[in-house]
Amino acid sequence: MPRAWVIEDNDLNFELVDFLLVDAGWEVARARDGAELDALFGTATPDAVLLDMNLPDVSGLELATRLRTRREFDLAPIVAVTAHAMQGDRERFLAGGCDAYVSKPIDARTLFGEIESARNRRRG
Fold first, then answer.
1. Which structural domain range is residue 85 located in?
2. Helices (H) and strands (E) in the chain, counts
């Protein structure tokens, strides 16, 4: 069973993503902010990280950088999940360490397509 970490502070957004992932057979662990993300380290490494870019205590880009410095995340794609949908946002998040980008409101086909494409690229 694939495992995802979802870093999302908004309960409704988390519930949607959680529903979609669990329905597709994923195991989900949640963090609401950077401190809760730190608590996930040491647990089973995820197969994908879905990362909100607007968190209360830290930017999503800072967390993407933190994840990328850890060797156990070499194969785990980081998917930026964000309401930022202005021109250049996608490129900024991809340049900042994310492997994929999904804008809110979330479309299930887009979400799973981005996760799978990013997982394939990471595996090489």
1. 3-123
2. 5, 5
Q: Are 14 and 6 in contact (CB under 8 A)?
A: yes
pTM, whole model, 2 decimals?
Answer: 0.94
How confident is the model over 12-38, as pLDDT tens digits? 999 999 999 999 999 999 999 999 999
Look up the CATH number of the domain holding residue 83: 3.40.50.2300
A 10 A CB-CB count for 46 gives: 24
CA dihedral 42, 44, 47, 53 (to 10 degrees): -40
Instruction: Say how far apart CA 60 and CA 66 lie, in whole Å.
Output: 10
In terms of C-beta density within 10 A (0-12 exposed, 13-18 middle, 19 or more buried), how is residue 66 classed?
A: middle
In this predicted model, what pLDDT tens digit does every residue of 45-103 receive, in sequence order? 999 999 999 999 999 999 999 999 999 999 999 999 998 777 888 899 999 999 999 99
- CA–CA distance, 41 with 124 (Å, rounded to integer): 25
